[in-house]
Design brief:
single chain; about 180 residues; alpha/beta; Glutaredoxin; 7-stranded mixed β-sheet; 7 strands
Length: about 180
């Protein structure tokens, strides 16, 4: 009985360690990431005021209003956030395939030197910005990260996803292709 209890405690300890150790935690999160679904217009909030100043970290500064009438992938994240780190490879692959069709806006509060090292190490090149002032007034409040929105050409928020997701799945790409038509 005592030996069984010791083995159980050892296994429990290993599982806890793996969940606390960032690289293995990111791996577990990636295994649990699913493809998000695009909501119908009838159940989607709409952006009516696109005025939002963004400071480019690896891009030029822009006003979000430049993207009105386009499909926009808007992601809030940080390098210290394991679910964010878990979904970034999916975002990078999605970006490589759709950068000429979809506007990619990635928002972080971190400084560029820190993000630049992180990007170089992982080979990422999607656009990164910081908000110069309050977020879009029609955007739901972002209280946790990662948080991602997909906005269609008419300004409807068709995806509002908290947590890690597989943004490069075939099913998600097919749904985005439908929005681009």
């Amino acid at each position: 009985m005592k030996k069984h209890l010791t083995v159980s405690n050892l296994i429990f300890g290993i599982v806890i360690f793996l969940m606390l150790y960032k690289p293995s935690r990111v791996w577990f999160i990636r295994q649990m990431s699913f493809s998000p679904s695009i909501e119908k217009i009838e159940s989607s909030p709409k952006i009516s005021n696109y005025n939002w100043e963004l400071q480019g970290l690896n891009m030029k500064d822009v006003n979000f209003s430049e993207f009105e009438g386009k499909v926009v992938f808007l992601n809030f994240w940080a390098t210290w956030c394991p679910p964010c780190v878990a979904e970034l490879p999916y975002i990078q692959e999605f970006y490589k395939a759709y950068k000429d069709k979809v506007v990619f806006i990635s928002i972080t509060n971190e400084n560029w030197p820190e993000v630049a090292v992180f990007f170089k190490k992982r080979g990422y090149d999607f656009p990164v910005y910081q908000s110069n002032r309050n977020y879009l007034q029609d955007l739901p409040t972002v209280t946790s990260i990662p948080r991602t929105f997909l906005i269609d050409k008419q300004g409807y928020i068709r995806v509002d996803k908290s947590g890690s997701a597989d943004w490069n799945s075939a099913s998600f790409r097919n749904e985005v292709d439908e929005l681009l038509k």
